[in-house]
Amino acid sequence: MRRALITGITGQDGSYLAEFLLAQNYEVHGVIRRASTFNTQRIDHLYHDPHDAGRRLFLHYGDLTDTGVLTALIDKIQPDEVYHLAAQTHVKVSFQMPEYTGQVTGLGTTRILEAIRQVHRPIRFYQASSSEMFGSSPAPQHEHTPFHPRSPYAAAKAYAYWMTINYREAYGVFACNGILFNHESPRRGETFVTRKITRALASMRLGKQKKLYLGNLETKRDWGFAPEYVELMWRMLQMDCPDDYVIGTGQSNTVRAFVEKAFAYAGITLAWVGSGVQERAIINNFTSDWKPYFKLGDCVIEVDSRYFRPSEVEHLQADASKAHSLLGWQPRVTFDELIAIMVDYDFKYLGIDSPGQGITICKVKDFSYTNHDFTLQQQDDRDMS
Ligand code: NAP
Ligand code: G4F
After folding, report:
1. Does ligand 2 have an atom closer than 6 angstroms to the CB of 131?
2. Mean pLDDT rounded to a whole number for the chain
3. pLDDT in tens, 21-42
4. If 175 and its partner were Cys, which of 57, 107, 125, 233 is the partner (CB 3.0–4.6 Å)?
């Protein structure tokens, strides 16, 4: 049985990757942080009591700032593959916490690479690199596009990217960079723009929220579906030689397009009025189920400069030709389908009837391992201390 160690197992990607690897019959070890509240919601459905025989998921406390623990864990677990996904992942937050972001998102990678080097075992290593590293380089971006980081997060990721290559070249570590463009899902963190929008919609539909405040509406992102992307992390580590790959759909859309489509899917047509920080969206048309809470002409979106970044990445769009030919991958879930999946989830989560296409799309496209997202999990007590 192959053994994998995942840092960031409690995050969006870590949780999907854990599901995927367990389905491939791996023994999966995950590093989690001590928190005063439960932070394991995304993996609760995979958890088995430590006393259960035959369990294949094991959780260990650790932190990317703690070299001793990371080294001891790798030494103890002796994994065949390490998927390094943990990071301070929020770009806007990285401007507020630049040094911490460097410590965790940048140096965290070095700590793990060094631990791998010291165990003298052929461990394969995946580094969660990011399209943010391309920053202001013109789209479409591919493996040879120069980096021009536009945030402390992106600068930290660029450092980690080069450390990964350095350990490959200097010490022969089987180390790969997956340069992933934005990927979303029902498990996306609530403060990233896509999930912020789909959650707000659901809460508006219950009459609990009247307005959504957003930042820059013009930036373009290449948004894909997270469960597809974690499978590619695994594929990279199954290749004969270590290499770096860009992963993205090749389609780029503005934040404005995401908002319009999400609202339209839920039954609201928006009209934009004003410009710049004065711009707002009003309800132009809606289906009858919105009537208890809104009327035509109500303002539902406003721009708030609080969400602007000191320097922005305007346009990300992947040229994933290398992944298409070498990893044999083509994106499956489209932009419209992604929106349907996320809106449906957030509606269902609040107990509201959803348009329902998203659920069907998951089934039709055989993302069986995301089906549990639509069956709400009861959080239970656990003790892994
Ligand atoms: P995420 O949902 O924000 O998850 C981040 C994970 O890192 C969480 O498990 C978090 O633990 C853990 N973590 C944060 N700080 C840590 C620390 N000091 N020590 C140990 N663990 C720590 O991120 P994601 O979207 O799954 O992304 C996974 C990786 O891919 C990240 O490295 C991200 O930068 C990179 N990436 C993501 C995208 C994307 O579009 N999602 C694109 C390109 C690259 P808690 O749960 O306790 O907070
Ligand atoms: O959803 P975002 O916060 O994601 P961002 O900055 O693109 O970063 C994500 O993708 C990266 C891959 O390229 C990852 F490496 C990174 O870890 C993370 O997962 O913002 C997307 C865009 C930005 O241009 C932002 O300025 O949406 C714009 N935006 C507009 N209003 C907003 C908002 N972003 C957020 N978070 N909140 C807003 O209200």
Report:
1. yes
2. 94
3. 999 999 999 999 999 998 999 9
4. 125
219-276 pLDDT, tens digit each: 999 999 999 999 999 999 999 999 999 999 999 999 999 999 999 999 999 999 999 9
**Binding site membership of 355 for ligand 1 (Cβ less than 6 Å):** no
- For the chain, list the domains and their CATH numbers: 3-183+223-251 (3.40.50.720), 190-221+254-311+335-367 (3.90.25.10)
Q: In this structure, which ligand is nearest to the CA of 34?
A: 1
Cα 105 to averaged position of ligand 1 atoms, centre (Å):
9
Answer whether 183 contacts ligand 1 (Cβ < 6 A). yes
The reply to whether ligand 2 has any atom less than 6 angstroms from the CB of 247 is: no
Nearest-atom number in ligand 2 for the CA of 131 is 13
Atom of ligand 2 nearest to the CA of 157: 15
Closest Cα partner for 95 from 215, 258, 13? 215
Return the pLDDT at 52. Answer: 79
Q: Which two tokens stand for residue 66?
A: 């703690």
pLDDT at residue 362 in the model: 84
Burial 344-365 (b: 16+ CB within 10 A, else e): bbbbbbeebebeebbbebbeeb
Please list, in sequence order, all residues whose beta carbon lies within 8 angstroms of the beta carbon of residue 330, skipping any fewer than 6 positions away: 324
| φ, ψ (nearest 5 deg) of residue 246 | -85, 135
Q: What pLDDT is stored for residue 54 in this prediction? A: 85
Report the Cα 259 to chain-centroid distance in Å. 19
